[in-house]
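Progress note, sequence design subtask.
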């Protein structure tokens, strides 16, 4: 099965992978800006997200294989790979399994290490919403708010909420659904916390962290440098985990400088 992607521009190929609960549409504005700089951008929906296929199998090995299949099917030669959070781990995993396949990699606010479970609050909030019962997006927003999720997280998650028509013998009923596969994600959430496989990479790499985020800590630097031998580790001041959304201009400038160098 093939991944859904949105394609922008012409030139050197750049593939963008979103994070957990994200989708390619989140990257539309930045993708267009990269395309205006002479890049052909593929903004991708990873499996169980966005408009891509759903599967019971969900881990970094299969997500890296999905990326390899996309590259082969589109005849993409030596792409630059950019991944945020879960997407960054997919990029790292792909790079270690496919040496010399990528020209450069950019990893946004994630380390190669294993993480302790930390999505419990979000999952509980999402699972509390009865999609067949709510009548408006506002009701879903209120439920997320009741679980203490901040406004930014609420809006990020609600971008995945859409209406579908459920067929009945006598009438169609409008109900809501999620773009992400919540059932599989909730059952297998530990998969997204796993570390990348052992190995080393000679691919030029840029790791960008948000100064307000704890996803890449000072103690992660040695681990990153032990795996990626040609790496730059940089920071965007004032940004949290969603650094590309919180500081888009700075994120764009830093990544484009690395791409063009």
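Output:
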């Amino acid at each position: 099965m093939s991944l859904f992607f949105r394609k922008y521009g012409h030139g050197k190929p750049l593939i963008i992978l979103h994070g957990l609960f994200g989708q390619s549409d989140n990257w539309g504005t930045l993708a267009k800006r990269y395309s205006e700089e002479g890049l052909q951008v593929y903004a991708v929906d990873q499996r169980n997200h966005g408009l891509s296929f759903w599967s019971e199998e969900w881990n970094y090995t299969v997500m890296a294989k999905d990326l390899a299949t996309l590259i082969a099917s589109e005849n993409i030669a030596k792409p630059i790979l950019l991944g945020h959070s879960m997407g960054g781990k997919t990029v790292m995993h792909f790079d270690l399994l496919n040496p010399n396949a990528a020209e450069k990699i950019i990893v946004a606010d994630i380390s190669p290490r294993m993480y302790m479970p930390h999505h419990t609050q979000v999952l509980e909030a999402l699972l509390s919403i009865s999609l067949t019962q709510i009548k408006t997006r506002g009701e879903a927003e209120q439920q997320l708010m009741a679980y203490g999720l901040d406004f930014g997280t609420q809006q990020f998650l609600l971008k995945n909420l859409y209406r579908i028509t459920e067929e009945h013998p006598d009438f169609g009923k409008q109900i809501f659904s999620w773009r992400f596969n919540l059932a599989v994600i909730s059952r297998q959430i530990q998969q997204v916390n796993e570390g990348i496989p052992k190995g080393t990479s000679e691919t030029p790499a840029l790791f960008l962290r948000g100064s307000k985020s704890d996803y890449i800590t000072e103690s992660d630097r040695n681990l990153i440098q032990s795996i990626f031998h040609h790496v730059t580790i940089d920071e965007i001041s004032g940004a949290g985990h969603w650094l590309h959304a919180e500081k888009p201009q700075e994120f764009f400038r830093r990544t484009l400088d690395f791409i063009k160098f």
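The beta strands are 5-8, 12-17, 39-44, 80-84, 104-108, 161-167, 172-178, 205-210, 231-236. Work on this subtask will continue into the next period as scheduled.
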